[in-house]
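Data card: per-record layout.
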Amino acid sequence: MKKNLIILGCALFLSAAASAQTKGDMTIGGNLGFGIGSHSWKSITKVDNTTTTSKDSTPSGSFSFIPSFGYFVVDNLQLNVGIGYEMSAEKSFDDNKSKKTIDSRHRYTLGLGLNYFIKVCNNFYYTPGFFYDFGGVSSIHKVSKENETKKTTRSGFTTGFDLNLVQFEVKVSNHCGLTLNLLNLEYDFTSTHRTSGDIRYTQNSNDIFFNLSSKIGFKYYF
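The structure for this 222-residue chain is written out next.
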């Protein structure tokens, strides 16, 4: 009898967890992430009437924190609204290692996205998604040579999208879910400026990040 009750309880738990992604369900939660990957960029810089173009591809590291609210508009399709902070950075040296350059970028954004839930097994889901965001950005360019360090800061506008290619969610209870993102592709457009005396510097950048990430998240269903 006791064994039958345990089996019945487990069956009810799994069925509740498995059926939670239905139209009208809502969630609150957030994602915390660290990543490493490749950053490919093209930059157009305008100084008064002079324009220069540069491009490169460098290794990069990133950190992000995105609280969010979600609503299932239909079964298994979730609409998300989130506010976020993301920091990415790259470090490089010249040929003789005498000069070190660190470029970092801080994004503060509001975004909207979609995730589709594909059931893998009882309470485990593959949840690929798309997220669009926009907001403010601060870019810092720091050059260190011998005992001298020079830092340049620009601020401006950013917008872009993020494709969550390898992402999963496990329902640990009827009201709680844990998410894990392992791979994403990100595109950002950034326009920044600074003024030095009578000279105005404007820089427009198109950035592509291909990240092996470790973003973990928590969702509360209600």
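Known properties of this structure: DSSP finds one helix and ten strands in the chain. The CA atoms of residues 175 and 221 lie 4 Å apart.

See the next section for split statistics.
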